[in-house]
Amino acid sequence: MDRRPAGPVARDGPLEPEPPGPQPPKPRGLALRQRLLTSLETESRFEGFVERLAACLQSSEAMARTVIAEIDREAGWVDKGIPGHRVKAVQGGALAESDSIGLVRIEPGYAYPPHHHAEAELAFCMQGRADLLDGPLLHPGDYWVVPARTLHGCRSIGEQDCIVLLRRQTGLG
Description:
Layout (H helix, E strand, L loop, with lengths): L7 E2 L6 E2 L12 H15 L5 H8 L3 H11 L13 E6 L9 E7 L4 E5 L4 E8 L1 E4 L4 E2 L4 E4 L5 E6 L4 E8 L4
Helix pairs in contact: 2-3
């Protein structure tokens, strides 16, 4: 037996008749809705960089999206003892075995100290601004290839953390 009232139903506002037939399920709550919206924002935050990042990584757009997804995952970020810095290794996937891919997160005002590598390094700015030592100021979406055995470093400038994706490969450059 249907126990719904046959007449108008009180709501926030004027009385309206109850629509006939089965009603759609009510949302389970704002928490679920917020988690879904947040997950969509995370996936699309760097969407504009996918094609360019895939080209820089010499990889597929799917691989670029996999790398991008790591930025907002808290797991895996490591404090290496340099104030204002955290780093995260990223699996190369389809990239050559000689590749080393990682993310560096530098808090505003902090600098990554000057250093060098035996191989060339590509720096792709994902967020914030990176003022490179003896190089350009990188904005989100910019990249720079640092030749092998070249002293380099960067400073995070601006109001937000600077996140740079780094790729080192023996044949890069």
